[in-house]
Write a structure and sequence with these properties.
The chain is mainly β.
């Protein structure tokens, strides 16, 4: 059975106004395969806001390890 691990990677990007921002991307590694995952945003039908989105991202971030850099193995 393959080992499953949760990883995170901090990435920089520029928003619409050109300001530098930082985001966290999450990945699951199953054996030798790395799969990107996304924290789902469940908008409230009345308000359009997901009050628990930040909590879900924080929990994933707390349990995730830093994604190791790729090694060029040929």
């Amino acid at each position: 059975m393959a080992e499953v691990k949760l990883y995170k990677k901090n990435v920089s990007y520029k928003d619409k106004e050109g300001a530098e921002k930082t985001a966290v991307n999450f990945y699951i590694r199953c054996g030798t395969v790395t799969v990107p995952i996304e924290v789902k945003y469940f908008a409230n039908k009345e308000t359009g806001v997901d009050n628990r989105y930040r909590e879900r991202k924080t929990v994933l971030g707390a349990f995730a390890e830093e994604l190791p850099e790729k090694s060029d193995s040929k």
